[in-house]
Structures are given as C-alpha cells and as structure tokens.
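Weekly puzzle thread! Below is a chain. First person to post its structure in token form gets bragging rights.
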Amino acid sequence: MRGRGRTHIARLLTALGVSTALLVSLALPATAAPKYPGKDDVSKARDDADDSAAAAANMRKKLAAAQATLDRLDTEVAIAVEAYNGAVYKLSKAKKTYTKAKARSKQTATAVEKARGDVASVASRAYAGSGTAEYVSLFGSEDPAGVADGASMLSVLSEQRGGAYDRLAAAKVVQNIVRKQTKHALAKQRAETKRVAATKRAAQAKLATQQSVLDRVASLQSKLAERADEDAQDARNLAAERRDGIAEARRIAAAKAAAEARKRAREARERAQAAQAAQQEKPSKPRDNGGSNVGAQSVGNATGGVAAVQYAKAQIGKPYEWAADGPDTFDCSGLTMRAWQRGGVSLPHYSVAQWDQTSRVSLSNLRLGDLVFYADNTNDPSTIHHVGMYIGNGKMVEAPYTGAYVRISSIYRSDLIGAGRP
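Winning reply:
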C-alpha cells in the first residue's frame, strides 16, 4: 500500500511540480498524525514517477512508429489493390480476344474445307463421264472445228482447276495466320490469369500486414488509454484521502491529471487520423492539367453527374473492402464505377483505366460527378492508386482504405494528379 501511495504521489508531483519544501511548509501541526509524504517518500515517488513516465513515453514512441508504418501501408495497399483490379481488367480483355480468335479459327477451317471440296469437284468433273477423255477424242477429229472445241474445253477445265487450287492455298495461308493469332491469344489469356493470381496474393499479403499493424496500433492505444484511466483514478483517490493542509493542492493535481489523462486517451484514439488531418490543413498544390482534353471524350453530362453523386453519397458509412463494388462494401474504383453506372456511363473497375476513359478537366472547372485521381508519381498516370468523386466545395466522396468507411474528404492532397470527366 505504501509503494502504491508513492506511485500516486509521484504522478501528482510530476504533474504539478510540487517540491519537498512546499510539502513541508504545508504540513499539519506536530501533534497531528502526518498524512503527507516525507522526504524519503518523495524521493522514492519521484523515482517511481520517472519509471512510469519512461514507460509511457516508450509506449507513445512505439505507437508513433506503428502509425507511421500504417500511413505508409495505406498507400501501398491502395497500389496493390488497384494492381489487382488492373489485372482483372486486362484478363477480361484477353478472354474476349481469345474468344474472337477461336471464332476466326473456326471460320478459316470451314473455308479450307470448302476450298478442298471445290478442288475435288473440279477434278471429278474433269475425269468423270464426258470429261477429259471425250474432249481429248475431239483432237482426233478431222473437223477443225471439233479440234478447236476440244482445246477450248480443256483450257476451261485447266483454269477452273487452277483457280480452285489457288483458293485452297490462300485459305490455308489465312488458316495458319489465324492459328498463330489464336495460339498467341491463348498464351496471353493464360499469362493474364497468372498475373491476376499473383496480384491477388500480393494484395492479400499487404492487407494482412496492414491488419497486423492496425491490431498493434489498437493494442497500444488501449494500453495508453488504460494507463491514462489509472492515472485519473489514482488522482481522484488521492484527493479523497487527503484532508490536511495540502488537500487543495492535491485536488488541483487530481483535476489536472484527470484532464491530461482524458486528453491523452482522446489523442491516442484519434492518432490514426492525425497525420491525414495535418496534410489537409496545409495541402501541397497538385499538378494542374490546365483543362486539356487528353484522354477519352466525355460522354457523361451534368444530370448524370448529379445522379452519380447522389448514389455515391448514399454509400457513406459503408465499409471499405478491396476489390469490392457494392452493394454493401466498396473499394475506391468500385464506388466510382457503380456511381457513374447510375449516371448512365459505364466505367471499368480500375482507377488507371478510369483515367484513360475520362477527359481531362481543370481543377478550377470541376463539376459534380467529376473524378479526382491520386498517384504515387504525379507525373505518371500509370502509378494512379486512388480515385474519388467530386461533390463540390473542394470535397469528394471516397472509399479510402482498409478499416475505414466511405466518407467525405478534401480533394487536396500531395498525391493529387488531376481530374477526369466521364
């Protein structure tokens, strides 16, 4: 109990800076049983306070390091998820190409068989019935006209046979080309299938790492909050126990300790959002595309933009889930894809492809429903890893990252690369 009292006292002394001399000056008369700590108690309590403060400082240092890691992982996870979305998008295109190639291969096979049939038909006509033998017999005729007719008919048969062989040869050439194209398309489809699997594994690994750090942050925040609650309770108990001349000082210390404890608890719980909030207060000026029309031609309209925004806002509060496109969970490009689907425009579930399929628009000319893009390298659109939907007044609706929910945020961030209009 005495050691615990020293710890209580040490925390209050540290908070108030109360000296030994002050404690002695506030002592009760000698006839009363002393209820305040002596010099030895104060010295020991200060040592305990130093140990406790060092432990808390070390815990806060670990929390800051974990939060920094989490901030970095947020971007890395976004990049990995969009790489997976891109692989799925490219696999879909490869499957369509292979399907078309198989259809062309079947058509060329049919053409070759038809050409072979034509060759066989010409050969059959040439040697069957009143074919070559009859025409050759005309050469033995004493009638010059008969001889001429025989020569003419043989010439026609020769031309027909030659034409049929030419068509067969051409059909085989086309068939060989299409076979190679089909083989290449199949290889491409298989490669893209492997890439989808690889990017999925990479995204899952990043998400697992992110979840591990999230758990660590939550654990550290909980421990700091518990420590803060203990400090506050100690201060309240100590204030209630003391009724002597230093009671007022101790009540003040308890109140201060409780206030500081609540502040530390609140800061610990909100630390996960502190770095982002600081960036939003002093945003770096993003690269302005000047309203040039690089990219796809806009097919949306203002009415479609309003419908898209209404849909996006209706999803606020729903959880982020990588590779998800609704209706209960979303990732960034899945949310914008579904929103603009409501606005009458079809977009792929891939932020880089959405950039490619929208027309560039100046940040000063944004309207409701325009898409704002964020990249690891603001000079290279292929590094885009996040997209949100503009809703006016410098704000956007976004599905941010694992552990967060669809929300309204400022569009101004240091990795803002530009905007596009569907």
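Puzzle host: Confirmed. Bonus trivia for everyone else. Residues 367 and 392 are 7 Å apart (CA to CA).
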